[in-house]
Amino acid sequence: LMSQGKGLEIVLNSHSKRKTSTAVSFHEASRTFGDDALAHQGRAPAKVPMFFHSLLGHNFTEEDIKLGGKWWEKFGLGSKFYSYNLGFQSDRGAPHFVLAEGAEGTSDGEEVLASIFFAAKQMAEASGEGTPLSVRDLVVTMPSDASLRQRQAIVAAGEIAGLRVLTLVNEVSAFAVQRAVDYTPEKGSAELVLFFNL
């Protein structure tokens, strides 16, 4: 959370943790996020999308999303551990999650990511300590090898969540900027630091 006149602050989630799992559960009538969503993963794995970023901005065909297809190969974890029910939107040329029967029971990767952005927005607004906060803007970090379509998908997810994506920042660059903000060198000294993203 970044607000005017204050330093950068990491918002704690409802479990008082600094990190929140990127999982969304559609198992019950209302969505749950993070660790609460992970609790549903054992009961209804097809309704708890995780690692959904692998759907964003890639070119897959209807054949690719069938078991053993290119999507599962790229996903790397296989259907043995994550039994997603995937469908294909021929008009967009993109796979989506099938969460229930009918057209209303599907969710694109962008919509799932938008749910995560919305949950993060709610956490940030709730952290106001008595002062009502209104979060309107978003900065997203991404790997350096992200394609243009992946970047467009992330911006679309921000718009779906009702947020304006100010910029997309390389993960290593974001880490270096945060280090520069937090670092206070001794007077007259210099430090050389290498940032490497494995």
TrEMBL record:
Recorded superkingdom: Eukaryota
Keyword Nucleotide-binding: yes
GO biological process, one term: endoplasmic reticulum unfolded protein response
Species per Swiss-Prot/TrEMBL record: Strombidinopsis acuminata
Transmembrane recorded as keyword: no
Family matches, as InterPro entries: ATPase_NBD, Hsp_70_fam
Pfam families to which the protein is assigned, alphabetical: HSP70
Coiled coil: none
UniProt keywords, alphabetically: ATP-binding, Chaperone, Nucleotide-binding
GO cellular component: endoplasmic reticulum chaperone complex
Classification via Gene3D superfamilies: 3.30.30.30, 3.30.420.40
Gene Ontology MF terms: ATP binding; ATP-dependent protein folding chaperone
Protein name (Swiss-Prot/TrEMBL): Uncharacterized protein
Lineage, opening ranks: Eukaryota, Sar, Alveolata, Ciliophora, Intramacronucleata
